[in-house]
Design goal:
Layout (H helix, E strand, L loop, with lengths): L8 E5 L4 H12 L3 E6 L2 H12 L5 E5 L5 H10 L5 E4 L14 H28 L4 E6 L3 H4 L5 H21 L4 E8 L5 H6 L6 H6 L10 H12 L10 E4 L22
Parallel strand pairs: 1-2, 1-4, 2-3, 4-5, 5-6, 6-7
Helix pairs in contact: 1-9, 3-4, 4-6
Length: about 260
């Protein structure tokens, strides 16, 4: 069932695969037109074919979100636009003391600068057209818990959170809502290959998740759909955490770890 009463045109950055593609698929199933933006045009074309096979109205743009001028041009050149999902991100594991400045900069520029570029370009156009709209930033729970081993990504996501709350206050008068979704570990193909492949990794992670299972990409997509839709018309500056309770504090007398995962 759709969470949006009026179809919209929504740009999804990093929308050619993983969580971004799941978000685009859900928004499209809700009756919206989606525009996917990413650097890899081959993957964009494959994503477009996948969505069109489901009768979803989808366009694609080859775009580097770090390029301010290119992002502004892309958004201004669309026939119409109502919102942006800032999902594009970069990440790699590295101890902070071993990280190069270029490595740190690359992740911050994709996540944070990309969010700034797309959000401000959208806001300028919507304000110019006297039109309301919505933005959803895809962050993560280590924006506030910290992320040892991914300090660059944690710094970028924390900044995205602060930026989103700041502009939610600035742009509310123009009818532009800005919210964030903060997933924990999401069981995508890439995450499974890179993180869960280590022996015992999945079992160890599950003991720390109260709901006893990992998130699926469509669960993140459903939350984004709500925040971008009309049913969330009075929600701005909010952060929706989707981590099965992983980021909750543990009391010193916490119960024994869960013995087996709960099936969905």
């Amino acid at each position: 069932m759709s969470t949006s009463t009026a179809p919209k045109t929504i740009l999804v950055t990093g929308g050619s695969a993983g969580i971004g593609l799941a978000i685009a698929e859900r928004l499209g199933r809700d009756g919206n037109r989606v525009v996917l933006a990413a650097r890899n045009e081959e993957r964009l074309a494959a994503a477009q074919a996948l969505l069109r096979a489901q009768n979803i109205d989808v366009g694609i743009i080859g775009l580097d979100v770090r390029d301010n001028a290119a992002v502004s041009e892309a958004i201004d050149n669309l026939d119409t636009i109502d919102g942006v999902v800032n999902n594009a991100a970069g990440n790699f594991a590295c101890p902070a003391e071993e990280m190069s400045l270029n490595g740190f900069r690359a992740v911050v520029e994709i996540s944070l600068y990309g969010t700034f570029n797309a959000s401000t370009a959208l806001a300028r156009r919507l304000i110019r057209e006297s039109k309301s709209g919505a933005i959803c930033n895809i962050i993560t729970t280590y924006a506030w818990t910290g992320g040892p081993g991914v300090a660059h990504s944690a710094a970028a996501k924390a900044a995205m959170l602060a930026f989103g709350k700041s502009v939610a206050g600035e742009w509310g008068a123009h009818g532009i809502r800005v919210n964030s979704v903060a997933p924990g570990f999401v069981e995508t193909e890439n995450a499974t290959d890179n993180i869960l492949s280590a022996p015992g990794a999945a079992a160890a992670m599950l003991t720390k998740i109260p709901l006893g299972r990992f998130a699926q990409a469509d669960e993140v997509a459903g939350s984004v759909s709500y925040l971008m839709g009309d049913e969330a018309s009075y929600v701005t500056g909010a952060v929706l955490t989707i981590d099965g309770g992983r980021s909750l504090g543990q009391a010193m007398h916490a119960a024994q770890p869960r013995q087996s995962p709960v099936s969905r």
